[in-house]
Amino acid sequence: MEKQRDLLFFCLVLACSSSFLPWVSSSSAEGGPEKAPPKLLFVFGDSYADTGNTEELSVAWVPPYGSTFPGEPSGRFSDGLVLTDYVASYFGIESPHPYRLRNHVNKTVLQHGMNFAYGGTGVFDTMAKEPNMTTQIDFFQSSVEQNVYTKHDLSSSVALVSLAGNDYAAFAMKKGKPEELPSFIASVIDQLIHNLKRIRGLGVGKIMVTALGPLGCLPQLTAVSSFKNCSSKWDSIARLHNLKLRQSLQELKTNESITGSSCLSSSSSALTVLDLDSAFISAFDMLRHRSGELSENPLKPCCVGMTAGYSCGSVGDKGVKNYVVCDHPETSFFWDNIHPSQYGWRAVYSFLGSSLHHLL
Ligand SMILES: *[C@@H]1O[C@H](CO)[C@@H](O)[C@H](O)[C@H]1NC(C)=O
Ligand SMILES: *[C@@H]1O[C@H](CO)[C@@H](O)[C@H](O)[C@H]1NC(C)=O
Ligand SMILES: *[C@@H]1O[C@H](CO)[C@@H](O)[C@H](O)[C@H]1NC(C)=O
Ligand SMILES: *[C@@H]1O[C@H](CO)[C@@H](O)[C@H](O)[C@H]1NC(C)=O
Fold it and tell me: Which of 128, 270, 299, 328 yields a CA-CA distance of 20 to 30 A from 204?
């Protein structure tokens, strides 16, 4: 049990940069008919976006997860709301229902879209056994084929794709060689781009994809320096990934304006990168400059294991808690060793507004 939870230690999500790349050539973008905000949200990716898909064994389903919202574990890797919930609220959409629980609800709740994200996953298979992003898109595709969503629904939908770094955690745990890293990053990006094209091919009008956050600043990696020093090795992995992501998206745009293939799509199809890197950094800075007794180290997580073998949510025999929770989760950026708290996500979200605005 404990082992299984630990495997999920690197479950992530995210988003936030300002680059806005219209999929379409500028001629068809201008004066395009679709200016209405999206009405449905489809979500793919990992724990930054998951709102209940992982099975009950994951930490997201044990206390103190969910203690701020909804007051009990809800399958979110946080004390409360996560990125998906804030992005949905931005568009005035209800946070979409988890795919795994789709058969347990009145089908009308599926009209807001569906969340296919599973904590711990990546574009490739990771240490988590949950469905990778390809399989998540397969689930979406079968929903489309079963006519759960009409063409019109899909054209007024937006997708959130979160890739927070589990592929790289798996690479490290499988003892991948440093010299193989650049080509591994390239393969992650190629697979991600392929996935984005597939989602778009299924009729989704607009897509947000997260850039990696500052991986080296996750408590998991700063713990060795008492949460003071970010790991430059992991930060550089994130920077290279983000650079390649932007280059590939630019290339895709160029390719499509040459072939004119995007003109086939009538809607103002768009792709926005949610730059979690700048949003996390801005949030850290904001917290550092906070006044008075609250100005604690922003890299320090709220909920931690008592000793090295334990993590947030670890419980021993007879329900003894092997973790401690800070006094003020409502002012702590990180909830556990990997994930922002609800407060953290709200801060990140406040820095994502301009990228989200492009999708309206
Ligand atoms: C599902 O919810 C809708 C709207 O809340 C309601 O009108 C409908 O009767 C419900 N259907 C079932 C089968 O409960
Ligand atoms: C995703 O998972 C499926 C099912 O386990 C597997 O067949 C496929 O190879 C995986 N895809 C990638 C890109 O790793
Ligand atoms: C953290 O970084 C500072 C400044 O680079 C350095 O002096 C210090 O030794 C580092 N601390 C640890 C624990 O690595
Ligand atoms: C752009 O087109 C080139 C040449 O056809 C192709 O090799 C490349 O993969 C395409 N890039 C993207 C991101 O689709």
Answer: 128
The string of pLDDT tens digits covering residues 299-350 is 999 999 999 889 999 999 898 999 999 999 999 999 999 999 999 999 999 9
CATH code of 157's domain: 3.40.50
Exposed/middle/buried for residue 179 (C-beta within 10 Å: 0-12, 13-18, 19+): exposed
Catalytic residue at 47?
yes
**pLDDT tens, 112-141?**
999 999 999 999 999 999 999 999 999 999
Atom of ligand 4 nearest to the CA of 251: 13
Domain count, the chain: 1
User: Residue 142 is inside which H or E element, if any?
Assistant: helix 133-145
What are the angstrom distances between the C-alpha of 172 and each of 22, 177, 188, 226, 305? 35, 8, 14, 22, 22
pTM: 0.88
What is the per-residue pLDDT across 263-309, written as a single tens digit (0 to 9) for each?
A: 444 334 488 999 999 999 999 999 988 866 556 799 999 999 999 88
What residues are in contact with ligand 3 under a 6 Å CB criterion? 225, 228-229
Q: Which domain holds residue 169?
A: 2-291+345-357
SS3 98: strand
Q: Which of 47, 143, 278, 314 is catalytic?
A: 47
Active-site pick, 275, 336, 341, 355: 336
Lay out the sheet containing 270-275: strands in order across.
20-22, 270-275, 206-211, 157-161, 40-44, 113-115, 97-98
> Is 168 inside any structural domain?
yes
